[in-house]
Amino acid sequence: MVMEITQCQPGHTPFCKKTCSVKHCELIVCLVTCPDNKRMIKGLASLKQSLFQALQEGWNPHANVVDPLIEFQTPLIHWATVLGKDFALEWLIKMNFRTNAVCDRTGESAVHRMLKCLYSIKQLDGMSAREIFTLFSHLLSLLMGSCPDLLTIQDNEGNTPFHTCAKLIISQEGTTSELEYFENCMVTMLRSLTGDKSSAKSSDTSSVLNYKNNNSETILHILARRNASFNIMRYVIRRFNHVLDKNCLNKEGKSAFDIAINSQTYSVAKELGSTDDQGADHSATSFSVDLHIGEWDPSFGRPTKIQTSRPRQRSKKPHTRSESKSTQSRNERIVCEETNEVETLEVDSSASSTSSTTACMASGVGDGNKQTSSSPELIFHQDSDSPSSRHSPSGTDQKMDVNIAGMISVNLTNVVAIDTEDLSVNRVNQDVIGSPGGGDGSEQLEFDQHSLAYISHQVRQRSETRRKSTGSKERSERIGVTTASLRSSAETRKASDPQFQSVSPSCQHGGNNACYCRTCSPLMKLIKEEDDVVTLLEARLKDKRQKLETYLLDYTKQMREVEKKGSRCCLLLSEYKDERDAIIEEDQLKERERRKLLQRLEELEKSRIEPNKRLKFLDAKILELESLSEQSLKTIEIRNEHCSEVKRKLTEYDSALSEIACQNESVASTKRIKVEPLDE
C-alpha cells in the first residue's frame, strides 16, 4: 500500500492528510522532528526520552510502534530509514535495534519501505535526486553493516527489495530523475550484496537474483514488462549473466523473454535473448556506467554510440642504430592534416647514390610565423653512402624512426620532410650559408640549390595537378618521383658540372674519410644533428597535437551531451511509440466491437420487421374488434331496453291475466254455488 505524501504539520507525519486529527505515537513524532545530517546533542534528546518512557511501559523495541493508524504500525527502524534520519538510525543501531525487523502486517523490511517512500519524502524537503541517492546509499550501508542478509528478506508477497525496486522502475513514465534514482538504487543494492565490484560470482548474488515471489516471478520477469527498464536490465544481464536463470518460468508458464515479447519491449527481449556471457570484468568496459556506492551518475546506463580513441603513442626511448635496422622496410608517408590525405613519395636509393646530400626542411623551422597545416609534408630516401651510414659495417641504409607526438613517424637519417607550400629556396640557401661548417660553401650550395629546386619543381608541379583534379579519388592519388627521372637528372648534373664530381669522393664510395665534414654540404651537417631536428619537429607537432586534443575533448563532451539527449529522446520515442501502439490496438479493438454491435443492430432491425408487420395487423384487428364491440354494446343496450319494455308489457299482461283469472274464479265459484242446490 502506497500512502500519500504531503507537507508535514506539527504533531503529524508526511503521510498524514491535511485533515488528520489523530494523535500519533510520540516516538514517530520525535523522529520526524530529528535533525537531518546534524550531529547535535540536543537533536535526539526528545527521541531518547520518549524511547525510555516507552521501554518503561513495556514496549518491545523490535516490535511495531503503537499508533492509532494501522498503516503506521511498523518497527521504529523502518521509520528512521523512511524519514531519512541517518543520525537517528545510527544511534538506534548502536542501541542494538534489529535492522532486519519486519512489519507484522506486510512482512516488509526497512529497505522495502525506504525504496517506496524515501524519494517522495525528501523531494518535499527540496533535496535533489543526487542528494537523495547519496542519503539512500548511506542508509543502506548502515543497515547492511549490521545485517548483511537484509536484501534477501521477502515480504508477504514474496518480493525482495530487488523485486520492489524493479516494480518502481517499470512504474516510471519516461526518462526522469526518479527513474535514474531507482536505477542507481538497484546498482547500489547489487554492489552492496556482492561487496566487491569484481566479486560478481557469489552464491548470494545468484540466489537473490533468482528469487521468486508468490507469482513465481524473478526481477527479470518484472523488468521485462517495460522499455523503461532497458538500462538496468542490460546492466544486470551483462554483469550477472553467468548466475541468472533467464529460462525461469512464472505461474503462467512464461519466461522473462516471453513477457518481453508479449509486452512488445523488443529492446529488452534482445538483451534477454543474448547468450554472450561477458562477465563482470568485460561488462565494466562494455557498459557505459560503473557507479560506486555513494556516488551519482545522472547519465546512468545511457549507451555510447560514438567512440573516440587517441592515437597510440610509442615510448620515446633513445633509438640506437641496432634498433634502426628493423625499420628499413617501412613505407614513408606524407600526412596532409586538414585534407586527411596520405601521399607517398618513393625514391629509389640507387637514384641518389651519387649524391652526398639530402635536404631536410621541416615546415616552420625557418619562419615561425607561417602556418603549414594545410600543406603536405614530402618524405623521400637518402643516399646509402651518406655519412650517417658510415657507422654500419656493411655500408647499407640505416634508418631511425622517431614517433613524434604519437602522430607521424620520421626517418631522420634516410627520410627528410619538406613542406612544399612554404618551401623557399632563397631562405634555405641563406640558412645554409649561415650555418656552421667548413668547406667550399659556394660549390656545395650550388649543387644543393639545383637538387632542392628540381625536387621542389617536381613536387609543386604534381601538387598543382592534384589541386586541379576534381573528386576525392584524384585528391588522394599518390605523388611519385620515379627512379629514372632522379637518376637521369643526377647524371646530367654530373656531366655538366665538373665540380659536382669532385665534391665528396668519400660520400660517393662510402669510405670512412675522417674529413668528410669539410667536403659535405653544410646542409648535411645541419641534418646530421638529429637531436635538434627532433626537438623542432617534436615541439611543432606537440603544439598541434595539444590543440587537436583540446578540440577533441570539447567535441567529445558535446557529442556525449548530444548522445545523452539522443538516448533520452530515443527512450521517450520508444515509450511514445509503445503508448501509441497500445492506443491504436485499443482503438482497433473498440472498432471491432462497434462493428459487431452495428451488425447485431442491423440484425435486430431486420428481426423487428416481421413483428412490426404483425403488430400493425393486430392493431388493425384490435381497432376493428373495438368498433365491433362498441356496436355490440350499443345493440345490447337497445335490446336490453327492448327486453325491459317486453318485460314491462309481460308484467302488465300477467297482471291483467291475473285479474281476469280472479274474475273467472269468482264467476266459476258463483256458478258452482248455483249448480249445487239444483243438484240437491
From TrEMBL:
Using the UniProt annotation, give all residue ranges assigned to the region (Disordered). Answer: 296-399, 458-509
The record's annotation in Gene3D superfamilies points to: Ankyrin repeat-containing domain
Record's InterPro entries? Ankyrin_rpt-contain_sf (IPR036770)
Q: Which ranges are annotated Polar residues under compositional bias?
A: 498-509
This protein's GO cellular component annotations are: plasma membrane
List UniProt keywords, sorted A-Z. Answer: ANK repeat, Coiled coil, Repeat
Q: Which residue stretches does the UniProt record annotate as biased composition, category Basic and acidic residues?
A: 320-336, 461-478
Indicate, by first and last residue, each region the UniProt record lists as having compositional bias (Low complexity).
Answer: 349-363, 385-394
What the entry lists under SUPFAM superfamilies is as follows: Ankyrin repeat
Q: Which residues form a coiled coil?
A: 527-607
- Put simply, this protein is called Uncharacterized protein LOC116296361
* Species per Swiss-Prot/TrEMBL record: Actinia tenebrosa (Australian red waratah sea anemone)
What is the gene called?
A: LOC116296361
